[in-house]
Amino acid sequence: MTPVRVLAVASEVYPIVKTGGLADVAGALPIALKAHGVEMRTLMPGYPDVMRMLAGAQEVWRWPDYFGGPGRLLAGTRDGLDLFVLDVPHLYARPGNPYVTADGTDWPDNGVRFAALARVAADIGHGLVSAFVPEIVHAHDWQAGLAPAYLHYDNRPRPGTVMTIHNMAYQGKFDRALTGAIGLPGDASFDVNGLEYFGGISFLKAGLQFADRITTVSPTYAREIQSDEGGMGLGGLLRERASVLSGILNGVDVSVWNPRTDPLIACRFDADEMSFRVANKATLQQRLGLDLLTDAPLLGVISRLSWQKGLDLLLEAIPTILGEGMQLALLGSGDAELQDRYREAARAHPRRIAAVIGYDEALAHLIQAGVDALVVPSRFEPCGLTQLCALRYGAVPIVSRVGGLADTVSEPATGFTFGPVTSDNLSAALRRASLAFHDKPAWRQLQLTGLATDVSWRNRAGEYAALYRGLMASRRMA
C-alpha cells in the first residue's frame, strides 16, 4: 500500500472545537485513514479553546505581519490527531462561536480570517514545512475553499486538491473588493470561471472551480446539488464538473457512539441486551419531567432548529404526536421563533413534550439510548449524523427521503421515510411508526437491523483513500 500524505483544512475539529457535523468528520476521518496508509495532518485556526488544548505545541513558522498582525504556525497532537494550528491572535483570539459574534451576526472580517487559513494551507502545500510536504490538500467547506484557488493562482508546481462540500447552504460570500486584500489577483480571479458569484465572490465557488476532485457527504446529495434548486446557485458549475464529483457517506466515531461502553447513558446495552434500553428511557423521562410510560412511543430530536431541518413541520405534526399517544423529547437551538414555539408546546403539554434549548453532549447520548424513535424531518440534508447514531443505539429513525437520510435509512428495513417533505407526509410516517411500535416483534427487528448496520468510518475512509490515490495517479499520467 503506497503511503499518502494529506493536509486537511477545516475551521473546526472535534473534540477541540465543534459547532456542527463538519467538526465530527474533520476529527474522525484522519484517525480512520491511518488504517488505509494515509498520513493526514489537519490545519485549523488557533481559537482560544484550541490554544488552551494545544499548550506546548511546537512553533514551525513565524510571520511578523500576517494579514495585519503577527502570526505563528504551530504543530502538535491532540486526541490522536496530528495538527497544524494557525495562531494569529488578531484574527482568532475571540470568545464564543468561531464564526459569529455574541448577538449571532457574522464577524465582519470573516473573509480575511478564513482567507488567512487557506493561504497558509497553500503555503504548506508548496513546502513551507519541510517535515510535512503533502501530496494532497483536502479543503472542507467554504472556510477552506480558497486553498485550491491560491494553489491555482500561484502558478507553481502544486499538490493535488480535493474540495468537500458539507452543506451547500453556506457559501462564504463576500464583496469583490476583498480579493486584493487577501492576495488574489483581482482582475484575473474576478471572472465567471474564477471567484465571481452574482457580482461578489464566493469562497465555496472558488474551491469547486479549482479543486481537482470534489466530494460531498452522500451519493444522493451529490446528485441533488447538481440541480438548480439543490445547487443553490452553483448547480450549473457542479453539472460542468460532474466527472470529478462524488458522494462519500459520512460515518460516526464508533468508539464515542457505542452503547456497550458509553459512559454518558444510564444503562449500557447491546443487541443481546436490548431490554436495558428501558432503563435509559425511564431516566430520560424522569430528567425531562415526562410521564413514566413504557408502552407509549417516545420520540427524540437532536438538531439545529431551522427551516432546513424541517422543525417547523414537526410542530405542525404535534396533534398527530398527541393523538397517537406519543411523547417528544427535543434538544436543540437555532431560530428564535422555533425555540419559542417549542418552549410553548412544552408548557402546554408538560408531561408529553419536553424541549431543552441549547446543546448538552451527555443529554444527546441519553436521548439516543432512551428514545424509541429519532425524528429527522429535514427539507435537505447532505448526510446527517444523528440518524447514524440512532441506528447504532436502537432508536428507530423517522426521516425525510432526502440526501444522506435517503442513503442511510430505508423503509421497512431500518426505519420510516417520507417524501415529499410536508407536515402531512411526516404525520403519516409518525402514524406508521406508532402502529409498528405496538407490534413488538416487528419493532425489535427494526432495532436489531439498525444495530447491525455499519455506520463506522472504516469503509468510508477507504473510499477517501482510493480517491486520493486515484488523483495522484492521474496527476502522474498528465
From TrEMBL:
Gene Ontology terms describing biological process: glycogen biosynthetic process
Known pathway: Glycan biosynthesis; glycogen biosynthesis
Keywords: Glycogen biosynthesis, Glycosyltransferase, Transferase
Keyword Glycosyltransferase applies: yes
One GO cellular component, as annotated: cytosol
Domain Glycosyl transferase family: 294-433
GO molecular function, one term: alpha-1,4-glucan glucosyltransferase (UDP-glucose donor) activity
Binding site for ADP-alpha-D-glucose: K18
EC number: 2.4.1.21
InterPro entries hit by this protein: Glyco_trans_1, GS/SS, Starch_synth_cat_dom
Top enzyme category: transferase
Known catalytic reactions: [(1->4)-alpha-D-glucosyl](n) + ADP-alpha-D-glucose = [(1->4)-alpha-D-glucosyl](n+1) + ADP + H(+)
Keyword Transferase in annotation: yes
Record domain Starch synthase catalytic: where: 5-240
Similarity-based family: Belongs to the glycosyltransferase 1 family. Bacterial/plant glycogen synthase subfamily.
Biological function: Synthesizes alpha-1,4-glucan chains using ADP-glucose.
Full protein name: Glycogen synthase
